[in-house]
Amino acid sequence: MYQEHIDKNGIFTQTLKCVEELGELSVALMKDLKGSTDFNNIDEEIADVSIKLEQMLEIYKNSAKVNEYRSKKLIRIGVL
Ligand SMILES: [Mg+2]
Q: How remote is the CA of residue 59 from the centroid of ligand 1, in Å?
């Protein structure tokens, strides 16, 4: 889905943008924890991070392994 976008912008840039988006979500969540909640900002940053994580799965071509870890962790916390 993102391969053309990744090819156009480069793996380094897309990975850097993922790190930046993770930071932006951290800031939004910290603001919430400190009582300065902006739900629109949280929604937007979660969307940004979810897109970037999907791109990371394409870059690292590790969906199967990530899903394996995901299942194990969901079982461990009792939701699967
Ligand atoms: Mg963002």
A: 20
Q: Which of 54, 78, 77, 80 is nearest to 66 (CA)?
A: 54
Distance from Cα 5 to the centre of ligand 1, integer Å:
17
The structure's pTM equals 0.94
Q: What is the pLDDT of residues 23-76, one digit of tens each?
A: 999 999 999 999 999 999 999 999 999 999 999 999 999 999 999 999 999 999
38, 28 contact by CB (below 8 A): yes
Where does 1-80 show beta strands of DSSP type E? none
In angstroms, rounded to a whole number, what is the distance separating the alpha carbons of residues 26 and 30? 6
Mention every residue, 6+ apart, whose C-beta is less than 8 A from residue 20.
Answer: none
